[in-house]
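Team,

Forwarding the record for the chain on the shared tracking sheet. I've put the sequence and predicted structure together so nobody has to dig through attachments.
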Amino acid sequence: MSNMRTRNLAASLILLLFCAGYAYLTANLATRSIENTTQPSFFPWVITTCLAVLSAALLLQTCIPTFNQTVPKPMGIPRKRLCFALILSIIYLGLLPSLGFVGANILLFGSLMYLYGERRLIKITSFSFLFSIFIFYLFREIFQISLPAGILAPSVHWIDVFVKENILLWNNFWLRAYNVT
């Protein structure tokens, strides 16, 4: 067995043992009796499941014999760019309480896209805006985790109204299209 395969085998087994311990601790978390809310153990179960699937995939990849043993060279991102990305992340953490999650994420994603080579302003703006709104609503509506709205709280309210109205319009459209009453 090659050196890398041995490391991957050890790492996957250690991570699977870690997942088992984390799952045990998650299973013993207290529950709450508030209706229509997620339990405190919901997000730890999501993390445990994702980590277990990735660890099992690493274990499976290690056990399957491969013919090509060459390791590809790393991409070699310049150290200056990595340091600048770290500085952007620290600035993001500082702006998060005042700008809120959506505003700070738009600036962070846009800056990172520009830093890593994207130069089209429309693409930077649209992707950073849409991705930030998507993550905000994923955590707010699906995971029921409140994220800071910051100075954009009135805008978030109007976006919330817009999203809910469009969901209703799409639901009505598909119900009529398939003649569901």
